[in-house]
Amino acid sequence: MLGPVAVVALALAIGGCGTTHVRSQTGASTTTTAAIPARLRVDYTAHRKDPGSKQVWTLRCDPTGGNHPALAAACQELTKHPRLLLGSGRGQIRCMLVLANGPTVAVTGTVDGQAVRFSPSSACDPAWSKLRALLTGGEAVSR
């Protein structure tokens, strides 16, 4: 039988899954969300009409690795918005904005064990702003 202290300790341990608590020099406690496991290939073309602008990167999160130019920022964005690549969380996108020479991106791989095949359907897709570092390598996307 578990005593009251053990029950409280167990509840705190279970409730803290997926987060890391860090105590600073001043004693203040901050909470960060653990990175989501991911293995992705990102095919990014800055200018649709310029095939020479195509870049291909790999990205791993938890642990972070690959040749993506913005590894840490991309993994942070993915941890905050994992559903954007999995097809949910974007809502219904109705947009007629077409970028004749805008960027294109295709992302394939896995996020948290789920298969990913993602390419934003329009310039209005929220992924362009919420996953900017991941999709563009940190470049500003002009719309």
Describe this structure in words.
The chain is of the alpha+beta class. The protein has two domains: 1-34, no CATH class; 35-136, 2-Layer Sandwich (Subtilisin Inhibitor), CATH 3.30.350. The chain is built from four helices and six strands, in the order H-E-E-E-E-H-E-E-H-H. It has helices at 4-15, 71-80, 127-130, 132-136, and strands at 19-23, 29-33, 38-45, 54-61, 104-111, 114-118. The strands form two sheets. The protein has a four-stranded antiparallel beta sheet with strand order 4-3-5-6. Strands 1-2 form a two-stranded antiparallel sheet.
Which class best fits the helix and strand makeup? alpha+beta
Query: What number of structural domains do the residues give?
Result: 2
Determine the mean pLDDT. Answer: 74
Please give the CATH architecture of the largest domain: 2-Layer Sandwich
- Tally of DSSP β-strands: 6
The CATH topology name of the largest domain reads: Subtilisin Inhibitor
Helix count equals: 4
Q: State the CATH superfamily name of the largest domain.
A: Subtilisin inhibitor-like
- The sequence of SSEs as H and E is HEEEEHEEHH
Report helical residue fraction.
10-25%
Q: Whole-number radius of gyration? A: 19 Å
* CATH class group of the largest domain: Alpha Beta
Query: Which runs of at least 5 residues are low in confidence (pLDDT < 50)?
Result: 1-32
Task: Write down the overall geometry.
Answer: globular
What attributes characterize this protein structure?
143 residues; alpha+beta; 6 strands; 22% helix; 27% strand
